[in-house]
Amino acid sequence: MIQIAITPEIEQYANDYLKDLRGLADKPEDRLTRLVNDLNRANLTIEATYVQQIINNYMDIITAKPNDYITRIASFFTNLNLSWKIRLNITQKDGTNKSVYQSVYMHIVNAMGYDDVREKIFPKYMKKLNIKSCVYCGTQYAVSVKKGKKNRSKTYLSTYTLDHYMPKSKYPYLATSFFNLYPCCAHCNQIKSDKNPIFQLYNTSNISPFKFTLDKQSFLKYSMTGDSDDLRIIFGPNLGTSQQIVDDYDNYFHINKLYKNFNDIVEEIIWKYRANNTSAIKTLKNSGFNFIPQKADINRFILGNYDKLDDILKRPLAKLVQDIAKQLGII
Question: Does an H or E element contain 258, and which?
Answer without folding.
Answer: helix 255-259
